[in-house]
Amino acid sequence: MVASWYRPFLKLCEEWPVDETKRGRDLGRVAQAFREGENTQVAEPEACDQMYQSLARLHTNYYKHKYPRPRDTSFSGLSLEEYKVILSTDTLEELKEMDKSMWKKLQEKFSSKGPEEDHKA
After folding, report:
1. Is residue 75's pLDDT more than 50?
2. Which helix (H) or strand (E) holds 78?
């Protein structure tokens, strides 16, 4: 039974184009779901089938062909290349670091003791 799920997922993963800008985020959920290969037990066959069908539609650009766009733009006006840069793993990591530094600044600003008191202690 599991082999009937494992092999189509494996074939889909092999066909899926690798996006080097998204290290660790390309089909990771699928690989994690089938850690034991063909010996993996599928607890929810309907959910597994639904996930496979969704990934297959994405892979074949089903919705891109079903609902063609008159122009390659978005509500923000950014291009596809700009979105790829923004959604890359490196950019997302940089944004996390920026958020951390912003959070630190806010903590320091609203902490009960001022920065000069830190040096006195």
Report:
1. yes
2. none
Q: How far apart are CA 8 and CA 16, in angstroms?
A: 12
Contact of 34 with 40, CB cutoff 8 Å: yes
Only one residue has tokens 């993996």, namely 40
**How confident is the model over 36-61, as a mean pLDDT?**
86
Give the CA distances from residue 89 to residues 20, 21, 94, 101, in Å, rounded to whole numbers and listed in that order: 9, 6, 9, 19
Q: 33 to each of 2, 5, 43, 49, 60, how far by Cα in Å?
A: 12, 11, 11, 13, 22
pLDDT per residue over 103-116, tens digit each?
677 667 676 555 55
Amino acid at 39: N
Tokens 């290349």 -> residue: 81
**Which residues contact residue 59 at a Cβ distance below 8 angstroms, ignoring those fewer than 6 apart?**
12, 15, 16
